[in-house]
Design a protein that fits this description.
Layout (H helix, E strand, L loop, with lengths): L4 H6 L4 E3 L3 E6 L2 E6 L10 H16 L5 E6 L18 H20 L4 E5 L2 E3 L1 H8 L2 E5 L3 E3 L10 H10 L2 H10 L3 E2 H7 L4 E3 L4 H13 L3 H15 L3 H17 L1 H11 L8
Parallel strand pairs: 3-4, 4-5, 5-7, 6-8, 7-10
Antiparallel strand pairs: 1-2, 2-3, 8-9
Helix pairs in contact: 2-3, 3-4, 4-5, 5-6, 9-10
Length: 271
């Protein structure tokens, strides 16, 4: 991603360099920057491992309210590193794609929301990473594609979060043609939440982080888990599950404090 000067300088404070991944602690946010610009931020096996470890660390950090995933350089991510994928055994491929799947599922099961901050191209597993995140803010020039079919490798794993983020027909078109869609089209389909000028991308993400960080982490974790659990359920079962969860939520100290604060017209003090 082609970052604004202010973003690059801000990453220096509180940042940990893991070579392929930069980790920045920024108040309630943990910012993870894919850092392989010379390889178009391809998701190598080592980068996937670093990303998984960083997600775990962010989740264990009590101050964390949001994780942001961005990238250095002009490309968000070109997907898997093809230089690691030629002339390998079936077991090698199973290990690689299994590792990637675990990272994508880890994003969904994290206690806090994960925001993708996208500038440039997000393709194949890079598009999968975007689709797997809870929220996405993209610059106007960003593009998204699942072009594996063009090189004889259908994007079956990127397909999983993609078809859960956008309708089936446009998802199938992306998968069958491999042609990219621009940020406006991605917004129309529901793949991303906001499209902003490149110069306003950092500010837009920071505003979203601030809006989420005002709420109780415990309640956000419950709500995020409930959201993904009910997606695969029928309406009756979804209501049964949601009724139980909202009842538990109402009895939690955070909800009691929030309701009392509202009635007393004061800001809540989360437990």
């Amino acid at each position: 991603m082609c970052l604004m000067a202010g973003s690059q300088s801000s990453a220096a404070a509180g940042a940990t360099d893991h070579d392929e991944l930069l980790v920045e602690h920024d108040g309630p946010a943990v910012r993870l920057w894919l850092n392989r610009p010379e390889r178009r931020n391809a998701l190598s096996a080592s980068l996937l491992e670093a990303l998984s470890a960083a997600l775990t660390g962010a989740n264990e950090r009590p101050e964390t309210r949001v994780v942001v995933i961005g990238a250095r350089g002009p490309v968000f991510s070109a997907g898997h590193d093809l230089s690691e994928m030629t002339e390998r055994s079936l077991a090698d491929y199973q290990a690689l794609f299994g590792r990637c799947t675990r990272v994508m599922q880890q994003i969904r099961t994290l206690d806090v929301p994960v925001i993708a901050q996208v500038e440039g191209l997000a393709t194949a597993a890079g598009c999968q990473l975007v689709a797997a995140c809870d929220l996405v803010v993209a610059a106007e020039g960003a593009t998204f594609a699942t072009p594996g079919v063009k090189i004889g490798l259908f994007c079956t794993t990127p397909m999983v979060p993609l078809v859960r983020a956008i309708p089936a027909k446009p998802a199938m078109e992306m998968l069958l043609t491999g042609e990219p869609i621009d940020a406006v089209r991605a917004y129309e389909l529901g793949l991303i939440n906001r499209v902003v000028p490149a110069g306003e991308l950092d500010t837009a993400v920071a505003e979203l982080v601030g809006q989420i960080a005002r709420s109780s982490r415990e309640v956000i974790a419950l709500g995020k888990r409930a959201f993904y659990e009910q997606l695969s359920l029928g309406e009756d079962e979804a209501y049964r599950r949601a009724t139980g969860l909202i009842s538990e939520n109402a009895a939690m100290p955070a909800a009691q404090e929030g309701m009392a604060a509202f009635l007393e017209k004061r800001p809540p003090k989360w437990p």
